[in-house]
Amino acid sequence: MRVAWAIPCRYAEVQPGGGATIVGAGSDVLIVEGVPAQLHVLFAVRFVGAPDELDGELSHPVACRIYSPDGELAGEQTSMLQGDINQLVPGFVAEVTVAMATDIEATELGSYGVEFAIDGNALRVPIHVVEADPAS
Is residue 52 packed enough to be buried (19+ CB in 10 Å), middle (13-18) or exposed (0-12)? Predict the structure, then answer.
């Protein structure tokens, strides 16, 4: 399997049979009063693979890695992607879309990387941490 896309958002609801309702898609700029700051970020993530990869069962380890603005690994969370396949097109694709949350301990301002990895395939999404304008 591989990560087709990962979209930071404010809310995600997955529909049975495929697709998702995503609110606040592209919410990749997080405004903080200062650092350090503990941030909770939600993503809608679509995993895809060939139907024969799943052997009728969805159970794959997924890693979510956080990279600091200087590119250093700052944290990692692992879980199992389990459950129902949202869509299965025989001979073409098996996909599952899920809502996944992660925490970022922002110790400095800048662009963090949130990477989702499954079966040796990874996709990294930037999350920009900026300071609030004191004039506003």
Answer: exposed
Specify the DSSP element, H or E, that contains 52: helix 51-54
Task: Determine phi and psi for 16, rounding to 5 degrees.
Answer: -60, 140
| CB neighbourhood size of 117 (10 A) | 18
Separation between Cα atoms, residue 13 and residue 90, nearest integer Å: 25
Domains of the chain: 2-131 (2.60.40.1930)
pTM assigned to the model: 0.89
Closest C-alpha to 98, from 58, 129, 53, 38: 58
Q: What is the mean pLDDT of residues 84-107?
A: 83
Q: How far apart are CA 14 and CA 98, in angstroms?
A: 6
